[in-house]
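Please, structure for the following, as tokens.
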Amino acid sequence: MKKIIGFILVINTSLALAAEWNCRNNEMEVTCSSEKCELAEAGTFTPMSVSFTDKGKMEVCYYTGCWEGVGKVFSNKNHMIISGYALKLSSGTGGMALGAEFLIALDTKDNVSLIKINGYAMPMPCEKILKK
């Protein structure tokens, strides 16, 4: 009986683990309009920091604030997309304080993401972390 209880506890613990990714654009910033995209190189912009889980929890920090919320997750074997709508400003003084929309597309094989926020379209390397 003790072995069965131990086995159940191990399974429940492993199911509670969520994968988390932390991403940052230190090398470049890409801004896009419907007509063209422009590149800013390192040292000419403030890097963006993005963290998200495979359950949809996300935090996006750039320039004047950080936005948090839970997005809708779409995934298959090697790709995950999270669409976050009306994320709330959790710190700072961001111009999108009424709610922001974010799209994160991740290739889970190489941990490279594309983050789409307003006029920004940023490829970012990500670090995968396992969390409880």
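Residues 3-14 have pLDDT under 50 and may be disordered. The first strand starts at residue 18 and ends at 24.
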